[in-house]
Description:
Layout: E1 5-9, E2 12-14, E3 23-27, E4 36-37, E5 41-44, H1 46-59, E6 65-71, E7 74-81, E8 96-102, H2 106-114, H3 118-124, E9 130-136, H4 141-178, H5 190-224, E10 230-236, H6 237-247, E11 251-253, H7 255-259, E12 263-266, H8 277-281, H9 303-313, E13 316-321, E14 324-329, H10 330-335, E15 339-340, E16 355-357, E17 365-369, H11 383-386, E18 387-394, E19 408-411, E20 416-417, H12 426-444, H13 451-456, E21 462-464, E22 473-476, H14 487-490, H15 492-500, H16 505-508, E23 510-518, H17 521-527, E24 532-534, E25 540-549, E26 554-562, E27 569-575
Parallel strand pairs: 9-21, 11-14, 15-24, 17-19, 20-22
Antiparallel strand pairs: 1-2, 1-6, 3-4, 3-25, 5-8, 6-7, 7-8, 9-10, 10-12, 12-22, 13-14, 16-23, 17-18, 18-27, 23-26, 24-25, 25-26
Amino acid sequence: MSLETQHFINGEEIRPKNADDIGVKLDWTGDIKEAELTVDSIVLENNAKRIVLNHIEQLGVFEGVPYTAKIGGLILEYYIDLTVNPLISGNGDSSIEVTIKRRKQIDYLREQFNGLSFEALNKTNPITSFDVPYLIVRDNQAEMLIMLLISAFTLTKELIQGIKELITIITAGTVQASTPNTGVPPSVDTGDIIAQVLRIGAQIVYLAGILIALIDLTKKIIELIFPPIRNLKGVKVKELCEKACAKFGFTFSSSIINENAQLTILPVPFQPKNKSIFTNLFTLDNGVYNKGYPTAQDSISTAGLMFDWLEEYFNAKLRIVGTQVQFEIRDFYVLNSGVSIKNTLNLQDVRENQWNYNLGEAWKRYFIHYRTDPSDTHTYDNVTQLDCEYSTEPVSIVNADLVSIKGLVDIAPPFAFGARKSKLTTVEEFVLPFAKLADEVVQFFGGSSDLVAKVVGRVGVLQISQQYFSVTKLMVTTNGKQPVNFLDQIGANSIYQKYHVINQVKENFKRIYSATIPFSTKNFEDLLENNYVTDELGNSLEILTFEYINESKTAEIEYSILSDEAFNTKTILING
């Protein structure tokens, strides 16, 4: 059964002069393209020509003319691009040839994404951000500990000395004041007693002052060296994907992003205006903020850069199906393939098949590595998770100089990790007893103090080594905090094992065939959404290119099938 083809310009049915030469093609070798016509231009005559000329008279040449092709149940939206010089021969009965281009296909969408900053996106499709609590945990912990020890020692020594002096005053002064004066009758010197009481009272006041100073110092140390938890703004990757697609009238669908729904981007902080160096030196108010979505200061400043990163990071592809942008790894389509085809020999005269190999997908080294940030030393905390490296090696060798395994796959996420504060620092551990003592003393006198909670409650939040960092962070957050095992989700080797292991050479080695196969309308429509099919033997085939010409019952295809010619190789872990 052939596919019936209809053509429309501005909704009016026409028939191009070259209609019989127009078919449909699919190409999955690069970007996953939607179905396209096999021609880039159409020849119009009679009424079809007049429709185009009338459009030019009314709107000029800078707005294209809507053109639609219907092939079976497939509707292909194109437009006539009048800026690519059409060949026009007057207003008579002669024909004109015009260039046609696909409307709202993947190339179009990529162009739009590449020019779409998140700043501009937020103006039309507001981006929802959320608070990410953070703490500054500086790298000079030893210096702070020494300062704490000196301060605490000085005040504690003074407190002990004051207590000793109080004991001396009480012991010596009380004996003197209570000893009766000689005389008849003996008498007690009231003045001595009053003086003793005053001395004791003064010493107690002094000791109380020292104790208050120690408590106040503890508070100030906690506030100055351990500043309060503040917030930056973060955004979920899923939110950015959905808003970017909605901007151009598409919905977004991805099982990968749904599985990684907590994947978060934390943009770099910046100041709205420059401040005096003296203001910055003598204030605790840092005045730092970010907008909650990436800006020009971030490593992904546009939707195009974001989707480029996602495709490489998750080893997946964008494709458009109708008005939906899909983002999936190839295994998703393999598991959901529903088309079966009859395989045929492509060299019929000798009853053989001819093939080549997917050697362009082979690799020697596979390297995934995150960035570090010199302005945030905590990005070096998890060095074993920052990168991983795999190598394809021969199993057995006869002539080592003849072994030729080539290729580098370099995956470089443009982010640094957001380090999780997993425990108290040495300085915090040291301060904790003082915080507890301060709480108890203040509460004993009827006050309110919860310094211990301020110290202990810091575990689990983001930690940075200074107020400003320069590399955008990638995090996994729930209510703004990262779970203990967040690196199990986004560590370099975890990403390889989840999404890249299917690229290992031995397991992914394929033969590539070309063939002419019988094809039905039903098969054609199913193939539009999934280029993985099965043959009559149950083998999974990946369709690389497909071309179907009108009035034909066959299709010219190029496809690949798993093969074992790489059996003498293995993949080994070098680092990670």
